[in-house]
Amino acid sequence: MAIDASDSTVRNAVVGAAVAIAAAAMTVVGMAPAAAEPTLVDTISCHSADPWGPPITNGSPLRIDIDVYNNVQFPKDGARGPVLYLSANNPRAGFLFEYNVETTVRWVNTTTGARGKVIIPARGRSASWEGSLRTGHGAVQFTVNQKIGALAFFPMVNPQYSSCGGAAVV
Fold this sequence. Notes:
By secondary structure, the protein is α+β, with helices and mostly antiparallel strands. Helices cover 18% and strands 45% of the residues. Strands 1-2-3-6 form a four-stranded antiparallel beta sheet, with no helix packed on it. A four-stranded antiparallel beta sheet has the order 5-4-7-8, with no helix packed on it.
């Protein structure tokens, strides 16, 4: 089958148009603003007595450090911004027994007057949890109340309580 000059011209025009469209699309995508990284604002301590206690553990408290982030565009829990993101970390990992955690965070945006309460449940081999506070932009004060229990045939055995607070600007 022979290809004449008109078929070649049409093919070149189609290929040229496709290349131009692809180049334009890559230029537009390349110009899109990059997502900003979350900013660690503070780390607060909110230690608690260990519900397992002696003789299972050595009796030392659970060291719980809560990292506070702002500028979080895509929080893990799917919340839409602007949010204040809290991530509680307990370095005692790999413990044989499990914990149930129920955290209540009450917050107030002192700039706008908005208030809210978030309940964050968690379960695992460490007393770690994380969640978003949908505060809107402004100065935010918050109080964390943790209830940490041993998971031993029942969900919340020997619950232990701790409280702490902090502030950040979103």
